[in-house]
Write a structure and sequence with these properties.
With 360 residues, the protein is of the alpha+beta class. The protein is built from 12 helices and 5 strands. Keywords: Membrane, Transmembrane, Transmembrane helix.
Length: 360
């Protein structure tokens, strides 16, 4: 189907949205190379803390297993994907926070400054930070509460005391507060960006639709000018009018009628064959009851060939071509009647003959 046929026959449709909605993960580019590099720095830093404080803990291997668990959770939470972060993975992160807190806490010295041996406080706080950023703020606070509870229990079961142990997390409490506020701001920014993008898409679609309608109007005006200019000039020049003039007037009137009630059949080959048949005295009627464009170019080619063959074969009588409403038993019917015989051809949705009757 040519572009001109498509523009002339099909209704103008709004463009389908194809944009992926923006969220916190998109804005922070968590799946970017930079984010992966920062993950590497995070991993190296915490592994270094574990190695450098190995002589201050009860069992260095416990701290090593804990840091590996934290790194698995960290690699999971910086993966790309839509927000909110998947619930199952969110609970895995919470589990990693709680388990690493249990493993490292009872591996710490019970007296003196724990220093970087308590590396898990900062590492787990950052896991919860990004969990809050990825629209799981409630779960992040649940994780922090569990982390604080485990730390307090550890303090209560050692010489440090529950309060002193819980106060070790006061800085990280601020980190999570910042994450909650930052996450809320990030979500508002994402909503604003999505709203702006949606409005821009709608404006672009509206503009494209208006341009398409203007182009259709321009082409129809051009068709009108090409069809009617010659006869109108002849009429304006005054009579007398001979048989040729009257034939041209009737052909122009019929062509204009076709452009209104048979838009789906206004392919160049059919228009030319119709005009030639009418000039031979054949009564040609074109009807489009389908109301929707035929988008398959091969179907249009077969249909055009069948219609033009019927029109070219007619020397007298009449030819009626009708596009049937969608969902009917056939796509088009072609009925030809002449002084010597009559025929009826039906084409299916693929443009192939489903019935062909000839009456002598």
């Amino acid at each position: 189907m040519s572009a001109e046929q498509s523009a002339a026959t099909e209704p103008v449709a709004a463009a389908e949205p194809s944009r992926i909605a923006t969220d916190g993960a998109n804005l922070l580019a968590l799946d970017s190379t930079v984010a992966q590099a920062l993950l590497g720095v995070f991993a190296l830093t915490n592994v270094a803390f574990v190695v450098l404080t190995a002589d201050r803990v009860v069992n260095p291997w416990i701290s090593l297993m804990a840091v590996l668990l934290v790194l698995v959770a960290a690699s999971l939470i910086v993966q790309g994907g839509p927000d909110p972060f998947p619930l199952r993975e969110s609970w895995f992160v919470i589990g990693a926070v709680v388990l690493s807190t249990v493993m490292v806490s009872w591996n710490l010295p019970t007296t003196g400054d724990v220093g970087r041996a308590a590396w898990h406080h900062g590492a787990d706080a950052w896991l919860l930070f990004f969990l809050a950023i990825r629209r799981r703020t409630g779960l992040a606070w649940v994780g922090f509460g569990l982390m604080a509870a485990v730390t307090a229990v550890w303090g209560a079961t050692t010489d440090r005391g529950a309060l002193e142990a819980a106060l070790m997390l006061k800085t990280h409490l601020g980190t999570l507060v910042v994450a909650s506020l930052f996450g809320a701001g990030l979500r508002r920014a994402a909503r604003d960006i999505n709203l702006f993008a949606e409005l821009a898409e709608r404006a672009a679609a509206s503009s494209a639709e208006a341009d398409a309608r203007r182009e259709i109007r321009r082409r129809r005006v051009a068709e009108l000018v090409a069809t009617a200019t010659g006869p109108l000039r002849r009429i304006a020049a005054g009579g007398p009018y001979d048989e040729h003039d009257r034939t041209e007037f009737l052909a122009a009137e019929a062509a204009l009628r076709d452009s209104v009630r048979a838009r789906g059949l206004t392919m160049p080959a059919i228009v030319a064959a119709t005009s030639a048949a009418r000039r031979r005295g054949v009564d040609v009627t074109l009807l489009d009851d389908r109301g929707a464009a035929i988008m398959d170019g091969e179907v249009m080619t077969r249909l055009s060939r069948e219609v033009t063959d019927a029109l070219d074969a007619a020397t007298d009588g009449s030819v009626t071509v009708r596009l049937l409403p969608a969902g009917r038993w056939a796509l088009v019917t072609i009925v030809a009647q002449s002084s010597s015989h009559g025929s009826r051809v039906e084409l299916d949705e693929a443009g192939l003959r489903v019935e062909s009757d000839v009456a002598q």
